[in-house]
Write a structure and sequence with these properties.
The structure holds 3 protein chains of 3 kinds. By secondary structure, chain B is α+β, with helices and mostly antiparallel strands. Chain B is built from 7 helices and 4 strands. In chain B, 45% of the residues lie in helices and 13% in strands. Chain C has 6 helices and 7 strands, in the order ββαβββαααββαα. Classes of the chains: A alpha/beta, B alpha+beta, C alpha+beta. At the B-C interface, α4 of B face β6 of C.
Chain lengths: 650, 143, 231
């Protein structure tokens, strides 16, 4: 395959094209491809066993030359994993077990038949969908980036080349000067996908103009927002797209060295990235005189070590420099004085992955997608209380309703949608009254949220918003670097007040105090972590003040979450003495035996909720109550009112 | 930072990571060695080692239990799993059981939100865990 | 030299001056805690924040770490700044209520109560001791360890440091160690200040070592006066 590579000089532009043509020729024979997504989350669901089963089945039927098996990164529809997509028809089978491999080979590959039970079925209508494009989850998406995840094996540079990879780099080096590349990116209006949404082209320009010969280009893959994993999926599934983006960026800015800073909680992303860098070097796409030009560029990997604050640019730089991840004031901006005091440009993984797309198809094409001020697509991680958990890529401007209901399939158990948290710990929540909000940078800002890296945590009527505010504040207080008083002490005091409220010790004036403190923390903190830390609190107070007031005035947790404000109770007239709850109680707090009404001893109860979980639905004797007095327990030894089977269901 | 600051500092996190992988934690003698070799004040090295959650100055148990407390898992009741596990092992998150068998940790988001709550025992992922599933998982972890 | 606008006045500054140095040069009093002339600026206590910029795009920055820039518009005592300073001092008081330095700051800003839970942490993490030890004494025996709620300043492994020379400079520079207030500790209330010495509880408790004043701030004199009247 490397016949076109010149010794010690790597590929030229013509060589690259020739190589690609050769690869496509070798693959032109139309054999079925079985694609099995194998990202970290897929493997956690057992995809490796499924892959092995398919390999064995293919061998058993001697189909090695007739069927191609490809393992890829995350396909995006995580709820359906382990899943398999069969090309060229794009037949989509979901929730496979290793035993299904044999049947799929026999029936679908050899006989061309569809196995109905493996198809995705709409949870409400029961309708089954055969092809990927028909499945509602995929229909409304515009998967400019994620679709490639299913087309390439991340460990194969040939796969990436076969889908046109590195042609954007070739085009940029051959046809454009660095300044023209920057103006193309500026024209596309690409905005940073990591959080704040600054103009990417503008950032590049600042760095290009900065004085100095040595400049750095960094990929921020320290995806710290809990619930967000799109950067991981891109880096695991298509590392070359990020690498290509960085090389183009390095060319535009005048940098010779790029660094991928990736959190160490992503070992698979790290290994795929390392492998990809090695392959790119082999083919001369990294290193000296790339594609025969006089531009040289190389990339190394630097790993994080478990600190959310290191997603902030100056803290990230401190981490690479081997120091505590304490942010520093700006100015000077990293574009002027960053890593090792040199001009540095930092962009997010998804931002880099968009660059080859723009350079290949042109800024005008890109700016047709999205809204007036927010162009392109964005990948969101749709998680929490949602039927179709997964990664969703939509044009900016898509409404929340479309994302949650059309793509996400709505709330499990048909429960009531309450809010969606966007932007992670730096963001806020959007209530149901704003379901028709168009999701873009401006729309979210007006609603009091931020896009952040794209996490979307869906919450239903059983989520307590005070608890959510407390959860995020606790997280931020733990992750605060400790340098500035407003953030480290401020978040601690906010946490104390929120904990008091959730325990029933809230006082009048607490809400006002939280708001006052929140505003000062926002104003006076040094870095983005502190400046956005109060957002979850302010946002939940803005839209759910009634919940705060119920906690404070009535000592009631409407969602039944805050432990000190709830209690579990067994209705004596419904209890059928089945003994299931008392057996499952981890602390033996339920008395009562065969035929005798079960009673929860409130002083022993640890509020774990196991009894509510296990009480058979047809009895529904256990309830969770809040904001009222615990009813007087019945005297022990009272016999149950036995219902006959046919009466039980009335 | 002195002129060779770049060489001194560039590898500190990866050096610490290598020691952490080798020994399971960062022993005091190794930290002193590193400080001497990199010509950095010992308190600087300690400051870096204690800042990042991936490093531990205390030895860990033979088996690592990690429970995800990311937001998606949190709304699905991950706290109950943490409490139940803590109860069964007799320790709090961040601690190691008396017999040295288990270390319990909470992590913020493993990115496996579709199968939350997530419980990882020695790198093996268990999804959709409920409090009743905790004991069988722990029992299955053998020395 | 460059020109910038502070509180509506065009002033000149050297290129390397910070906004704090510039303001103080022109006689504007700016409260600080973690700043010390002989040490590198840290920007941690946030008390010296100033509002920069115009119109809708203003923000607060710590003036000790922000270098003067040509044409910069600065307001040292805007409403946002004053609200921030007050709450920041309240946060400081909630951590170290018995520090005279912090009490004086509180009184100067008119802060009279603490609405947060009061710990007696004895450390405000201003880092003066760390910088003193490193920069002036050249020892580097102490530093920040951990982060978040577990942040503290300590020696390596919390044991006696081999490079510590027992010079005491860290204690000398510490704003909390200086002059501890011994006054009555009614929760949530801050004694007026030592800037306005008016005997209060001394009238009722001859052994009290408090000179804090203005009537009613710590509550003792009012409470005792009422009781004395009733008897």
């Amino acid at each position: 395959m490397r016949t076109q590579v010149e010794d010690d000089k790597g590929l030229t532009h013509e060589g690259l094209k020739g190589l690609r043509d050769n690869i496509l020729l070798a693959r032109s024979q139309k054999i079925p491809h079985i694609v099995i997504p194998s990202g970290t989350c897929c493997q956690a669901r057992g995809s490796s066993d499924v892959v092995e089963a398919f390999q064995k089945a293919i061998e058993r039927h001697s189909l090695q030359d007739k069927v191609a098996l490809r393992t890829t990164g995350c396909g995006g529809f995580c709820q359906s994993e382990p899943n398999v997509v069969i090309y060229p028809e794009e037949i989509y089978y979901q929730k496979l077990s290793p035993d299904d491999a044999e049947e799929v080979i026999l029936k679908t590959i050899l006989e061309g038949r569809i196995i109905d039970r493996l198809l995705f079925a709409d949870p409400i209508t029961g309708e089954r969908f055969t092809h990927l494009k028909e499945i509602p989850f995929f229909q409304k998406q515009r998967r400019l980036l994620l679709s490639d995840n299913l087309r390439v094996d991340p460990t194969s540079i040939e796969d990436y080349l076969s889908i046109g990879g590195y042609s954007a780099l070739s085009k940029s080096l051959r046809e454009k000067t660095p300044d023209k590349v920057i103006s193309e990116i500026k024209q596309s209006d690409l905005r940073g996908r990591g959080g704040a949404g600054f103009s990417t082209g503008g950032k590049w320009e600042l760095c290009r103009k900065a004085k100095g010969d040595v400049k750095y280009v960094i990929c921020n893959a320290d995806e710290g927002d809990p619930g967000a994993y799109m950067d991981r999926s891109l880096l695991e599934g298509n590392p070359h797209s990020v690498i290509e983006g960085m090389i183009i960026g390095g060319y535009a800015i005048g940098s010779r060295e790029g660094i991928v800073y990736v959190r160490d909680e992503y070992p698979l992303a790290v290994s795929h990235c390392k492998l990809a860098i090695g392959k790119a070097r082999e083919y001369g796409l990294l290193g000296h005189n790339i594609l025969g030009s006089d531009f040289s560029f190389d990339i190394t990997i630097s790993m994080g070590a478990g600190a959310f604050v290191c997603g902030e640019e100056t803290a990230l730089i401190a981490s690479i420099e081997g120091r505590r991840g304490t942010p520093s004031q700006r100015p000077p901006f990293p574009a002027q004085r960053g890593l090792w005091n040199k001009p540095t440009n930092i962009n997010n993984v998804e931002t880099w992955a968009n660059v080859p797309l723009i350079m290949k198809n042109g800024a005008s094409w890109y700016s047709l997608i999205g809204t007036e001020k927010s162009k392109g697509t964005k990948i969101f991680s749709l998680v929490g209380k949602i039927n179709n958990t997964g990664l969703v890529e939509v044009p900016l401007g898509t409404t929340l309703r479309e994302i949650i209901y059309d793509i996400g399939g709505g709330i499990p158990g048909n429960r009531r949608f309450k809010a969606v948290q966007t932007g992670g710990p730096s963001g806020g929540c959007i209530p149901s009254s704003l379901l028709d909000l168009q999701i873009d940078y401006e729309g979210l800002k007006e609603a009091g949220c931020i896009m952040g890296s794209g996490g979307m945590i869906v919450m239903d009527e059983n989520t307590c918003m005070v608890d959510i505010a407390r959860y995020y504040t606790s997280f931020l207080n733990d992750e605060s670097c400790g340098k500035c008083l407003s953030c480290s002490k401020g978040t601690q005091r906010m946490l104390e007040i929120l904990t008091d409220i959730s325990k029933g010790n809230g006082k009048d004036g607490d809400i006002g105090l939280l708001e006052e403190l929140a505003i000062v923390i926002k104003d006076a903190s040094l870095c983005g972590l502190g400046q956005t830390a109060p957002n979850p609190v302010l946002s939940t107070i803005r839209y759910f003040q009634d919940e705060y007031e119920a906690h404070i005035k009535e000592k009631r947790c409407l969602a039944g979450v805050c432990k000190d404000l709830i209690f579990y109770y067994i209705h004596p007239e419904k209890c059928q003495a089945c003994l299931i709850c008392s057996t499952n109680c981890p602390v033996g707090a339920i008395t009562g035996g065969k035929g005798l009404v079960h009673i929860i001893k409130q002083d022993k109860c640890i509020k774990c909720g196991a009894c509510l979980d296990v009480c058979p639905t047809r009895f529904s004797a256990v309830v969770r109550l809040s904001g009222e007095k615990v009813p007087e327990p019945v005297v022990e030894g009272v016999k149950v009112i036995r219902k006959r089977e046919k009466d039980v269901n009335t | 930072m002195d002129s060779s600051g770049k060489e001194n500092n560039r590898n500190l996190l990866s050096i610490l990571r290598d020691v952490q992988e080798e020994c399971g934690y960062l022993p005091e003698e190794r930290l002193r060695e590193i400080a001497a070799r990199l010509n950095r004040p010992l308190i600087d090295v300690c400051g870096v080692a204690t800042f990042y959650r991936s490093f531990s100055l205390k030895p860990k148990g033979r088996h690592q239990i990690k429970i995800c407390l990311g937001t998606a898992c949190h709304v699905r009741g991950a706290n109950r799993i943490v409490e139940e596990t803590g109860r069964k092992l007799g320790i709090n998150p961040g601690e190691t059981s008396k017999d040295g068998k288990f270390s319990l940790e909470t992590v913020m988001c493993l990115g496996c939100c579709a199968i939350g709550p997530v419980f990882v025992a020695d790198g093996k992922y268990h999804g959709q865990v409920t409090p009743t599933k905790v004991e069988p998982i722990l029992k299955a972890v053998k020395d | 030299m460059l020109t910038l606008r502070i509180n509506g006045l065009d002033v000149q500054a050297e290129e390397w001056w910070s906004l704090l140095e510039t303001s103080r040069f022109y006689g504007i009093e700016i409260p600080t805690l973690c700043y010390h002339d002989g040490l590198s600026p840290w920007g941690g206590c946030r008390l010296c924040v100033m509002e920069i910029g115009e119109g809708e795009n203003t923000r607060l920055v710590s003036s000790c770490t922000y270098t003067a820039a040509e044409g910069l518009v600065v307001r040292t005592h805007s409403r946002r700044v004053m609200e921030a300073r007050k709450v920041l001092v309240e946060l400081l008081l909630s951590t170290c209520p018995s520090s005279k330095t912090i009490q004086d700051l509180a009184s100067a800003l008119g802060v009279q109560r603490v609405r947060f839970k009061v710990d007696h942490d004895d450390c405000i993490y201003c880092g003066l001791c760390v910088r003193m030890c490193a920069e002036q004494m050249g020892a580097k025996a102490i530093g920040f360890v951990n982060r978040g709620g577990k942040l503290k300043i300590s020696t390596p492994f919390d044991r006696q440091s081999e490079v510590c020379r027992h010079c005491g400079a860290c204690m000398y520079i510490c704003p909390v160690c200086q002059l501890r207030c011994q006054g009555p500790e009614a929760t949530g209330v801050v004694c007026g200040s030592c800037l306005r010495p008016e005997p209060t509880c001394l009238e009722f408790y001859p052994d009290q070592m408090c000179y804090m004043g203005s009537a009613g701030d710590c509550g003792t004199c009012i409470r005792e006066a009422k009781r004395a009247q009733q008897n």
